[in-house]
Structures
1.
Amino acid sequence: MTVQPLRVGELRPNQLLHTFGVGAVADLPNLSVVIGGLDDWDLAKSQPVREDRLLAAVRRELGDQVEALRTPPHIPETSDPFAEWSRVGVPVRLFPRWLRCSACNRLAPVESGLFKLQPHAYSPERIRYIHECRGRGGNRPVVVPARFVLACERGHLDDFPWMFWVHGGAVPEGGEHTLKLQERGTTGEAANVYVTCSCRKDNPGGRSMAPALGPDAWRRLPACRGRDPHLASFSECGERTRTLGLGATNSWFAMQLQAFTLPRADDELAQKVIENWGDLSLLVPLPDESARGLLPKLNCWQDLESFGVDKVLQAVRRRAAEADDDEPADERDLDTPEWEALTRPDPVDLPDFTIRKERAPQATRSWLNEVVLAPRLRRVSALYGFTRIDAPEWDVQATDTSRRVRLSREAPTWVPCAETRGEGILLRFHEGRIAAWEQRPEVLDRQSILRLGHERWRAQRKMSPGDWPGMRYVLLHTFAHVLIRQFALECGYNASGIAERIYARSGDRPMAGILLYTAAPDSEGTFGGLVSLGRRDRLGDLIGQALDAARLCSSDPLCAQHDPRPHGRLFGAACHACLFAAETSCEHGNHYLDRALLVDTVTDADIGFLAR
C-alpha cells in the first residue's frame, strides 16, 4: 500500500543549507523530523543552477560524478491545499522515533501503535501525534518527541537507548515493560529527568539522565550502531556515543562552498552565451538555417529569448571563434578570479555583477588604495556534506573526510544550492604598506604567540602542523569584523545579514582586501543601504568610529591580555563583546582575530597597523 506523504511545515531555501540541511533535525511545533537524503528528492521539480567555478570546487571534494548544482524542489503555492504544490518539497522522516505523552508521560516508539497521527491539511504545522490516555479535561493529549538522542563523532545519529538505560545495560526479562519519562523538579536539568520502567526491577525509583551526559558518559552507553536516519540506513561503526539534547546546536554543522557570479564578457548577451555554452555549442557545426530552427528548442532559450534568434546566433558564432584562444583556468581557485574581477579598472554593469570605483576618503589614503562599490552581486552556496559533535574546520582541506557525513546513499550526482543577491563594498589596502607592516619586529613577535596557539589547537585535534593563514589574514579579518559591527549600526541591515570575504595573499600575485556584502536572501539584500556607506563622505567617519570602538573592549583588560598559547586558541585580543560575529557573517568561525594587530589596546601598543 502506498502511503500519501504529508506536508509538515515550511523552510526557506537558505535554511536548507545553513540550518536545516540534509541530515539535520528540524524541531516543528509538534513533531521533530530529520531532512532526508538526496536520493529521495524530486528532481523533476528542481532547477539546475549554473556556476561553473563552484561546481568545479564541489567536484574536487565529492568526485567528478557530480553533474549539477540544483535548487530544492518547489512549485508556487496556490489557494488549494490539495493541489500538486502541497505534495512537492523536501522529504523528511520522523526522528526521534521515541515519543512521550505530554499527559501521562508514557514513553514508547512510534512503531508500538500507542500513538495516533492526527493530520491537518490546511495547517501542516498543526500535524501531531496524540495518545488515547485522555488527559486533563478528557482531551487527547499531544505526544512530543523524546528529549535526548545519541550521536558519534563520525556523524551517526540514533534514538537514545531508553530500555537499555533504565535497566542499566541489562537485557530485560519477559513481561510488560512500560516506560515513562518524568521531570521531578522545576529546573529542567537532566538530573531531574528520570526514566522508569513498570517492572521496577533494576531501578525501582527510575534512573536519572544525568549520568548519560558528560565526558565519561560513553562508558555507560552502548557503542554506535552506525545509523543514518536521513538515509534510512545502518553501517559498521562501534565508535563512542554521546548524548545530545534534541535540537542541540552541535547536532549538525553544514559544510559549504560559496562563489560569486563573475563577468566573463563585457555585455549581457555575451555573458549569457558563455554561461549557457554547454547547450549553445551544439549550434556551432550547424549551418545558420538549421541553427535558427534548433535554438528555440534548447533548454537555455528561456534565458536568451529576449535578445532574439539572430543576435543570439551571432553571439554564438563570435564565441566559437574566441573559444580556441581561451587560456585554461583553475576553476577550483575561488578567490583569485573574484579578486581580479572586483579590482578590474573599468566599471561593470551586468544583472548579477555591477561594480564602480569610489575614491578613498582623505584620512585613509595612506593605507587604503581604493574602494569598490558593488550595487549588484550574486552568490551561490552549495552544501556538500555535514558533521556532528564538532564543527568542520573552516579550511576545507584541513577537515578530516572521515567526519564528513554523506548526503546520499550512493555517490551524489548533484548537490543542493541556494542563491542570494545583494550588494557589497570592497576595501583594497596598499600592498606596500601592508607588506612593510608584516616585517616589523614587534609584529613578528606577536605572530610567534598567535602561531603557537594555532599549532597547539591543531595538535589537540590530531591534525598535522601547518596551514597558518599569516598575519596579513588575521589583520584583514579583524578589520572586517570591526567594520561589520559599525556598518550594522548605520546601514539598516542586521549584523548577521552582512558577510565577509577576505582576500589575503603574499607572493607574486598578492591580494590585500576585504569584501563586506549582504548575505540576506530576501528583499533586505537589495535596498542599497550598504553601498551608500562606501561613499567617501561617509566611509571615512565610519572607519574612524569603528577603530575607536575597537581600542577598548568592555571585557578589558581580560580580553586584551588573552594569551592563545596555554589552551590552544585561534585568537588573541578578541571576544564576544568586541569582535566575534554571527556564524552567517564570518567565513572562518570567529578564528584568527586580534585587535592588537589593528589598533592600540590597553596592554599592547605600536603593533597595530592603524595604531595612533
2.
Amino acid sequence: MRRAKIVATLGPASNTIEKISALIKAGMNVARVNMSHGTHESHTQLIKNIRQASLNVKQEVAVLIDLQGPKIRVDKVDKPLELKDGSSWVIGESKNIEKYPEYKDCYIPTIYDKLVDDCHDGARILFDDGLISAEAVERDRDVYKIKINVGGFLKSNKGINLPDCDVSAPAFTAKDKEDLLFGLENGADYLALSFVRRKEDVEEVKFLLHKLKKNIPIISKIEKPQAIDHLDEIMEVTDVIMVARGDMGVEVGNHLVPSVQKKIIKKCNERGIPVITATQMLESMTENPTPTRAEASDVANAIWDGTDAVMLSGESASGKYPVETVSMMSKIIEVAELDPKERPLLRNMDLSNVNASVMVAASMIAEKVDAKRILSVTESGHSCLKISFFRPKTEVLGITNHLETVRRLCLYWGVTPYRLFDYNEDDFNFQKDVINKVKEDVGLVNGDKLVITRGDGRFFSRGSSNSVKVEIIKDAPKVPGGQDSLSEASDDKKKILLDNSICASCQNCVHICPHDIWKVSDNDRRTTYINEAKISECTMDYECIRVCPTGAIEIIPMNN
C-alpha cells in the first residue's frame, strides 16, 4: 500500500470523465480545482465529472478548491517592454500613466493600486516569476522609480512579486469569497488559501465558515517570507499546510527552498498537521513521458522528509502525459516508502488527548500482534488523523458511514477510506456489518488479526468510544457430523473435535498443550491432527480452545 497521497491539478488535459477515471486508477487521491483559471460554469462541470468518475471506478477522491488570492500583475501593454540591465523605469497604476507624460516611454503599468504605497526604497521588485528583477529607488508622487538589475522582455499580465514589502492586499479577496461560496455549494472537501502571511488571514476565513455553519478544512499555502516568519502561529489555526514552492522560490530565493521545505515538514510532523509538498515536482513530464532523475529524487526526498502528500500542477492540468505523470509519482512514492522515515518518539508526543493516546496504542498493538489491518471507526475522521500522525506500519482502514468523511480521509497519510453501505442502524451488528464485509473486501483469511479502535463520535460505538480491541478472523465452528474435514477422537470422559476446514494452522494448540494431544503432520507441516493415543490425558482445561483463533476446536464432556 502507498501511504503518502497524491494531489493532482485538473485542467484542459484532464477534465473529462474518462481522463479523471484514469487518473484515479493511476493513484490520484485529491483533485485540485485551481480557481485562478476558468469560470464557475466550467468548474461546476469539472466537479460533476470528478464525482461521476469516482462512481465509475468505485473510489472516492477529495475535491480541493484552491483560491486565487491577491494577484499583483502587469497591466495590458501594447507590445512587450524591453527592460535593459541598468535602465531606469517607473511603475504605477495604469490610470495614472497620463498624469506623467515625462515617463511616457518608461512606464510599467500595474493593476495593483497599493503597490506604490507598499513599496519602499531599496526593495526588490520581481517580474515574471523572478526572471526580471529591479530595485526601488525613490517615490515620485504616485509612481516609484526603479532600476532594472536583470532585464528582459516584459509582457502583459505577468506577475509582480514584492518580497521585501509588507503587501497590504488581503490574502482573502472579494473574488476568493465568491469562489469559496461556489466551492461550498458544489461540495468542496478542502479549501486552499493562497498567500497566507499571518494567522489572521486564516482566522478570517474560519470565521466566515463558522457563520455559514460549514466545517471545511483550510489548507494554508506557505509561499511568502512573512508566512515563514509566522509559521508557528499559522499552524495553530490551520488544518493543513502546503509548501507552495513556486512563489516561495521567487520570494525567498530558490537556494533557500529545500531547507525551508524540510523545516516546514518537520514542524508539521511534530504537531500532527498534514503537509502537502507542491510545485514542479515532475515538471519535465509536462512535455516528456518520463521525469528527470533530479525530479524523481525530489519526490522521494519529500517522502523521506515526512510529507503527507505531494502535488502535481501543470503536469496533470495541461501536460501531454497527465495519467503517466500520476502513475510515475505513485511508483516513486512506493519505492521511497520501502525505506520509511522514522516516526516520532513517544516521549516527544503530546498524549494528553485521550483520543490521540488510544490511536497510538492501537498502532503499537497492531505491530506487536502482526495485525493485517487497523480498523479506525470514525464519524468525523479526527481519529484517523490522530493515528496517521503516529505513522503506523499497519495499513489503516477508516471505517465510516459518512461520504464527506470518506472524502476527507483521502488526504490522510496511511489511511484508506472505507465507507459502509447498507446497514441497519437499529439492528447493527459489528461482526456482521463490518468485520465480515472487511474480510470479504480485503481478502482476509481465518486467523488474521484486526485491531479495531473507536475514537470519535457515536458512529458504531454504542457507548464504547475510545477503545481498542483485537479481533481474530474466524468462522463459527462447524456442526459436528457429516463433514469430511471434521476430525474426531474420544474416550469415556470427553469428545474432541477439530474442524480442519477452518483450522488456521497456527499451531497454538500444539504449543500450549502439555500432554501432546495435538500434533503436526510430518508430511505437511500445515496440517494439525488429534493424537488419539493421548486424549485420556486431557484435563479439559480448554486452554487449546482459548488460543484457537478460528474456533476450529471443540471439547464436549461425555455424560456417563
3.
Amino acid sequence: MKVLIIDGYVDEPAHFGVPPYLSTYPRYITGLAHMANYEIEYKTIDQIRDSEIPNSDILVVIGGVTVPGNYMGGTPMTVREAQEIAVRFDSKLKILVGSMAAYSIDRSGGVVARPNTFEKYDAKMWRGYEMKMYKLFTGKEWKKGRIALIKRAAILGAPIVKEHPNFPDLMCELELGMGCERKTHCSFCTEPLFGEFVSRPVEDIIEEVKSLYDSGARHFRLGRISNIFAYMGKVTPQPEALKDLYMGIREVAPDLKTLHTDNANPGYMYSHIKPVEKMVATIVEYNTPGDILSMGVESFDPQVIKANNLKISEKHFIEVIQMVNLIGAKRVEGVPKLLPGINLLYGLTAERRATYKINEGILMRILESGLMIRRVNVRKVMAFPGTPLFEALGGKMPRVDERLYRHHKYVLRNKFDHPMLKRVFPQGTILRDVIVEKHSGNLSYGRQMGTYPILIGIPKILPLRTHIDCVVVDHGQRSLTALPIPVDLNTEPLKLLRWVPGIGKSILSRIEFERPYKNMEDFIAHTRTELPEWMKEMVLFNRKRS
C-alpha cells in the first residue's frame, strides 16, 4: 500500500507549519504509515498546485489555519483547494487532517468558523487523529495512549524532512504538550478543545530531536504548547525539567543552528516569577540568538480583560517584560538572545473605541521606558464553535471597527514598531546565515531561520536559497535593510553602495569614476568621506572587475 501525504500547511495557536516550518502532522503521519508497513510519498501544496497529483492507494491531506497571518515561505491550502484535490484524486481512501477537517475556514481574521462539508473525503480527523489513523492504517487499537504512540511515530517519521523542498533549511516544530494549564480559559482560544493540559516526557522529545538531527535537521522550535513555563508544571513550574530538556537537546544535537521557543503565558509568569526567572535563564543559556517569547496579552483594556478572562494587567505585564529584558537582552553580535513578543487581538467582547487608545498608550510607555519588545502581532479574532466567544456572539461575526483598526495598525507601525526595531537591531548589527527567499524589483528579501524571523531587504539581486551574512544599515516599520558582508567598495554596484552609512549620493559618481581604491586610507583621501568605525570593519578593496 502507498500513502500520499499532501502538506497543505497549518497555522494553529501553538503549532506552525508554513515553510520554512514543518509541523508535526506530516512527521507523525509518516511514522504511523511506517508502523503499518506502507510506502510513503510526501508533497507540499505548493509542489502540486501546478502539477499532477501522484498516484497512491491512500491520500492524506493536511490543512487548516486557525490563526490569521501573512506568509512569505509558502501559501496555506484554501478550502477550495482541499475540495478540488479530493475531486481530482482517485484513490481507495481519502483522509483530511487538521483544523480544516472540522472547520471550513481560510486565512482571514474577524470571521466565524463553520463546520465543513467535505463530502469527497472518506475520513476527517483533527483532535486525537493519531489514534484514529493508527487504527485505520493497521486495523488495530493502540492501547498504550497517545503519548506513547506519537513517541514512536515521531521517531519513525523523522526522515521525511529530507523530502521537503526547503530541506535542510527547515524549522521542525516540536510538541512539548497540549491543552492549556489555566482552570478557566481565554474566551476565544481553541487550545482547551484538545482536552486537559499534558506535557510530553523530556526523554521522548530528546529522542525525537536525535532522530531529526540524524536525518539532517538543524533547526528546532519548542512549540505546540500554550505556555513553555508550564511544561511539566501545570500547577507549579518545574525549572529542572526545562533545564534537562534544553541540555538533552544540546547533547544529541551538538551542531544545531537554531533552538528557539514560542508561546508563554505572562499571567503564569507573573504568578510564579522566581522559578520562571530560573527558566528564562535556562532558555538564554542554551538557545540561539533572536529567540522570542510570544505572549498572548490580547488586550490591556481592563474591561476587555474581564469580559474575556484574559491573562494579565498592564502593571504585572511590565514587571514580566522587565524580567525578560534583564536576563534575555544580552546580545550576540548585536542580536538579543531572548525578547518578549506581544499579541494583540481585536473583535473580543466588551471592546470599545477606548480599547485602541489604551493599547496604544501602554505600548508607547513601554517604548519610552527603554525596554525592548521584539514584535507586536496585531490581528482580528476568529470565533470557533465550542469557545465562550462563539457563544457570546451567538454564532455571529466578531465586531471590528475597520476604520479604527486600520488607523491603530498605522499608528503602531509608525510610532512603535519603527523606533523599536532601531533599538532591537541598531545599525551595525550582524545577521548571520540569512536565506534569500524572494525578489522584488532590484531587491532580494531574506530571513534567518527562527521564531518570527525579521524580514530583511537586500539592495542586490542574489540567487534564491543563497545563505549570506549581512549588516543592518536601515530600518522600516517591520523590516530591515542590510548589506551582504564584506562589502567590496571597488566592485559593488552604486545602487548598493548608496546604502553604506557615510556614503552620500553626492559622492557616488566620484566613486564610480575613481575606483579601484587601494585601501581605506586611499578611499578617505579621495572621497573625503569617513565611514562609521563598525562599517570600516566590514568593507574590503578587491581589484575592480573589468
4.
Amino acid sequence: MSRETRLAAAVLTCSVTAAGVAAQPVPGDAGDPAVSVEYNVPVPLPDGVHLSTDIYRPAGDGRYPAILFRTPYGNMISGRAARVAYEYPRRGYVFLYQDVRGRFDSGGDWYPFRDEARDGHDVIEWIAAQEWSDGRVAMEGGSYMALVQWLAARSGSEHLVALHPVFSPMLGYLDLHQGGAFELTRIAWAVNNHDRTNQTAPYDWPGIVRHLPLTDMDRAAGHPQVPFWQDLVRHPSYDLYWKTLDSSLTADTLEVPVFLVGGWYDPFLRSTLQAFTGSDGVWQADGPERNRRLLVGPWVHGGDRSPVAGELDFGAESTVDLSQMSQRFFDHVLGGVANGWDQEAPVRLFVMGENQWRDEQEWPLRRARQTRWYLQSGGSANSGNGDGVLAQEQATGAVTDTFVYDPADPVPTLGGSLPGSTPGLRGGPFDQSPVEDRADVLVYTSEPLTEDLEVTGPVEVVLWASSSAPDTDFTAKLIDVYPDGRAYNITDGAVRARYRHSLEEPLLLEPGAIERYRIDLIATSNLFRRGHRIRLHISSSNFPRFDRNPNTGHPFGQDDELRKANQTIYHDAARPSHIVLPVVPR
C-alpha cells in the first residue's frame, strides 16, 4: 500500500457499507511487510451473532499464540492498542482487537457485562481453532477491557493461558459501591455508553447529578430509560444481579500467569488487590496466586503515563513504559523467553511521599504493624478550626462530637479515586482546605511527626456513631498535612448505615441507637514525612462521588425528599473510634 493510499484511508470516517461493516482508518504502520492485517473479520458466535475483529498477524504461514483485546469503545486504532497492534505481530504473536457484542460494528444487543463471560469463552475457542493459532490465547486491556478477562476466565478454557488486567474491575458490586454507598458518578458512563456508539452530547452534569429521584436521572440527561442505569438503581444490595458479575471465585482458583496493574487513586484498587491475593486477602507463594505479579503506582484511573495526579507531581520515575513491561510479560509466558520475569519480586509498589518504587515479596506486608490512632476532642472537632485530635493514646473522657448532615448541602467531592468518565471532576490528591471550612466535617489531626512514618497496606476506620435518621451515611478520609498547611487526601471510604452488618440484607437504624461502623479505606502506600501531620476527616457525604443519602430510610433511588440528620460520633473509653494504619518500620 502506498503512502498516499494509507493517508487517504486514514481520513475515512466510520460509515456502514452495504454488507454492514464499517470502514476504518488505517494506522501509519499499515503496509508493514512483517504484519498481515485483516479488518472487520466477523467472528461467529454460537447464537449467530458476529463480532467485528481486526486481526494483526505475523506475515507468512505459521502457528502463533494470540493476544485478545476486547473493547466496548470501538476497535479503531487508538490509545494503547495502537501502540501494540503492530508490535505484537513483530514479536511473533497474533493480536486481535474486537468490538464486544452490540457495540460499533459487532452484532447483537448491547448490555454492559451481561454477555462477556460467554462471548469471551466462545471467542477464545474460535481463536484456538484457526489455522494460524497454536492453541494458546492471552488477554489484555484496562478497565472494561480488564473486566472482560476475568469474566472470560470463568469458563476455565484450556486455551486461555495468561491475563493482563490493568486498572481492573472484577468484583461487580464492590466496584460501584463502598460499604453500600453508591458511586453516583457512574451515571456518566451509563449514559455515554448506553447505545451502540459513544455519546458526545454536552451534558449538564452538575445539574444532572443533583436530580432526584435517581430512577429518573437518565431521563434528566435527555435519554429515555437506560436499562443498565435502571438496573443499577433497582439493585442497591449485593444480590443475584451482582453475584453473576462477581469474579472473585475465579481469582481464587485461577492458575495461569496474571500481570496486574493498579493505582493508589484508581476506583478499582480493591479489585486489583483482591485479584492478586484471592478472597482471603493474603498472597500465598504456594497458592494459585503464585504466578501473579502486581504493579501499583501513584496513579488515577488510566494514569500510568503521567507523573501528575491531582495537584501533586510524583516525579518522572513514577511513570512506567507499560507497553514494554507488557511485552516482556508476554515474551515470557507466550514466547518462552528466559527474561527473568518469573524470578522478580511479585510486588512492585510506589511509596508516595518518598516518591520511590520498591519491590516486595508479599501483600499485605507482614512486617507492617497495625497501629491505632484514636479520635479525641473537647467536643468541637467541627472544621479545620476545631479541637479534634488524632492520637495514639485512647481517650478517657466521655466527650462526643456532633454535626448536622444536610443532603441538600452535601460535602463536595475534591479528588480521590474517581473513574475516568467522572463529570467535571478530577481524581487524585488535592488540597482539602476548602472542605475543611465546613461545620459538617469533623477534623482530627495529629501532632507534627518527629520522624518519618510509612503507611503501606489496608486502612480502615472503626467508628462508633448514632444518627437521628433511620438510614444515613458516614464517610472517612485519610490526609497528609504538610508543614505549610496543605492537606492532601491519601485514601477514603464510606459506609451506608443500612448495610453496616451485611451488604445482602439491609437493616435500618433505630434513631439514636449507638452503632459500630467499619469504614474500609481500601489501601495505600504513603510516607508521612517528619514535620507532617496525619489527619482524618469524618462526615456523612462526599458528593457526587457517592450519592446523597436522603436520610429517609425509603427504598433506594425512589426519593425526591431530603431530610437533615443529627450525627453523633463517640470516642470515649468504651467506644474508642479510631483509624487503623499499617505502619512499616523504616
